[in-house]
Amino acid sequence: MTRARILVVDDDDTIRTTLADIITVKGYEVATAESGETAVEMCTENRYDVILMDVRMPGIDGVEAFRQIRVHQPDVRMIIMTAYSTQELEQVALDEGAIAFLPKPLDIQKVLEVIGEAVKKASILFVEEQGTLAAALAPMLEAKGYSVQSVTSPVNALELARQTAFTVVFIDLEMQTMGGLELYLALRKINPTSIAVMLSKMHTELEKIPITVMPKPVDPEVVLALLEQLTRP
Predict the structure, then answer these.
(1) In this structure, are residues 102 and 80 in contact, taking their beta carbons and an 8 Å threshold?
(2) How far is 167 from 211, CA to CA, in rounded Å?
(3) Residue 2 contacts by C-beta under 8 Å, 6 or more apart in sequence?
(4) What angle do CA 104, 108, 113 make, to 5 degrees?
(5) Quick one: which of 19, 53, 103, 199 is 20 to 30 A from 114 by CA?
(6) Residues 33-54 pLDDT 10s
(7) Domain of residue 157, CATH code
């Protein structure tokens, strides 16, 4: 099996070297760059599955480097690291297509978890108050290479969405604390690229809003077929 290729970009020698060593031990192929300019140049010559990018560096910053890298590698998975986290900066990074935003000092276990999720086929979030659907489907989806997370409240869903750009979000349309449509619109403001699938016991038509509605109870094979369709390159 081909090892996933990771690029670590940070102007701090200690952070860059330490991260590279830890990630290498976990079985990944790792390269490093000390600046955004170097990272852009490396990405014109080599392909990477995941890039860990510091935001504040001499020369071009991490977000601008990401913009330039996407010209050559539009599908690369970008993880932003910064000691200067603000909601505005997080939003800019997610709007540009970053899949996660990690504050410094880094939680190494969290870094490894995010990398592990990033190299999978796609990231899936279930938002349902009971959590039963996610529990039932997660083993099958993870076996197919998907990264699966679930939350039982809209508030937690919004918090998680600010850290991770999910590929597909399944939302219970009949939640009590916040309507599914209201949550969808809030999630869209955070990450416009996420695809929403509404879960409903009743046949529901959402006029003028391009959302897939899936009836409950859910057929696992239908979920799998839909994900294959929605996440197809």
Answers:
(1) yes
(2) 14
(3) none
(4) 115
(5) 199
(6) 999 999 999 999 999 989 999 9
(7) 3.40.50.2300
At how many degrees (to 10) do helices 36-45 and 62-72 cross?
10
> What pLDDT, in 10s, does the model give residues 166-187?
889 999 988 887 888 889 889 9
Query: Looking at the predicted structure, is the pLDDT value of residue 165 above 90?
Result: no
Q: Burial of 224 by CB count in 10 Å (0-12 exposed, 13-18 middle, 19+ buried)?
A: middle
Instruction: pLDDT band for 9, please (50, 70, 90 cuts).
Output: very high
Question: How many domains, the chain?
Answer: 2
Last residue of a domain, one of 86, 118, 150: 118
Q: Can you tell me the distance from the alpha carbon of 77 to that of 121, in angstroms, rounded to the nearest whole number?
A: 11
Residue of 123, 14, 10, 27 whose CA lies nearest to 62: 10
Q: What pLDDT is attached to residue 229?
A: 85
Domain termination site, one of 70, 92, 118: 118
> Quick one: average pLDDT of 146-170?
88
Q: What is the pLDDT of residue 1?
A: 42
Identify whether residues 134 and 113 lie together within a single domain: no
Cβ-based neighbour number of residue 29 at 10 Å = 14
